[in-house]
Amino acid sequence: MPKDKTDNFLKAIKRYAKEQKDAMHGEVRQLKSERLKEAEEEAKRESQRRIKENLRESRSRKTAQFAKLVREGRSKLFLERTAMVDEIFEEAKQRLIAYSASDEYQEKLKEGAKAIAQLFEDSDCVIMLAEKDLGAAEQIKSFFGGAVQVQADPSILIGGVRGRCGSKRIIADETLDTKLEAQREWFVENSALQVM
Prior knowledge:
There is one protein chain. Helices cover about 70% and strands about 10% of the residues. It is built from four helices and four strands, in the order H-H-E-H-E-E-E-H. The protein has helices spanning about 5-100, 105-120, 135-140, 175-190; strands at about 125-130, 150, 160-165, 170-175. The relative contact order is 0.09. The mean pLDDT is about 85.
């Protein structure tokens, strides 16, 4: 083979090799570019997922913290409201105790006993009084038609009368203690001291 043909043949092979090399470099660059783009998109998706997850966790933490603060606030308000109501009712109790030493109270005690006597009619019953009111026992007994047993009841702290009729299965309560406690329930419901 003549030298020119060999040179041309070698040049053609080199040119072909260079074209193949350039084509391969182009494919590698394109593959790198595609892979890089895919990696960037994957990183973007992963980062968005993590941001959303972190936001959810942060929101959840903040919501839990807020709920805890609300609970603590309500609990504190409840305790303050309870203390306020206790203070008001302790003052009312002290005033009622003072009232129970008056002549007007003695008349109310008799009225309460008469109301219980009407309820029990002529049945036998047990009447309970505060220790300090036992002096009115005989007069209270006179309002009842049946046999009456009068007892001191240590749970009656302020005053009033409580009766129990076994045959009628009735307990009647005209004590200031019970009436004051009933007012506590009404006061809590209607005083606008509610804990929201």
